[in-house]
Amino acid sequence: MQKEFARNVLFTGAGFTKNFGGLLAKEMWSQISNNTKVQAHSRIRHLLLHDFDYESIYFHVMTGDYTDQEKKSINEAILLIKDLIIYAENGHLETMLHIQ
């Protein structure tokens, strides 16, 4: 199933959801960095090792000279984290983190 996205995306910041079971920025970075689809792309791995601001990395990949597959991988990693936050609201975050 293909998902449709708005042209503009608002990142409220990882701290916004922490009180609701979400992740802090360093935890977001870690989840992205450890994502197997992201790990398959050396250029994204290189970015992650030199920039710990996941929003900056996302912007760089999505607007830069990256392949469609690289863009898809970083986007899917962000969507997975969104799903983790939704699960966290229902008290399932610890279970999901161990599954990944």
Largest sheet: none
The succession of helices and strands, N to C, reads HHHHHHH
**Number of distinct beta strands:** 0
Gap between N and C termini = 21 Å
Give me the Rg, rounded: 13 Å
> What coarse outline follows from CA principal-axis ratios?
globular
* Uncertain spans: none
* Amount of helix: 55-70%
How much β-strand is present in the residues? under 5%
- Structural class by helix and strand composition: mainly alpha
Average pLDDT taken over every residue: 80
Number of helices: 7
Summarize the structure.
The protein is an all-alpha fold and 100 residues long.
Structure description:
By secondary structure, the chain is an all-alpha fold. The protein has a domain at about 35-100. Helices cover about 65% and strands about 0% of the residues. The protein is built from 7 helices and no strands. The chain has helices at about 15-20, 25-35, 35-40, 40-50, 55-65, 70-90, 95-100. Helix 6 packs antiparallel against helix 7 (about 95-100). It is globular and about 35 Å long. The model has no long low-confidence stretch (mean pLDDT about 80).
How would you summarize the topology of this molecule?
Layout: H1 14-18, H2 25-33, H3 36-39, H4 42-50, H5 54-63, H6 68-89, H7 93-99
Helix pairs in contact: 6-7
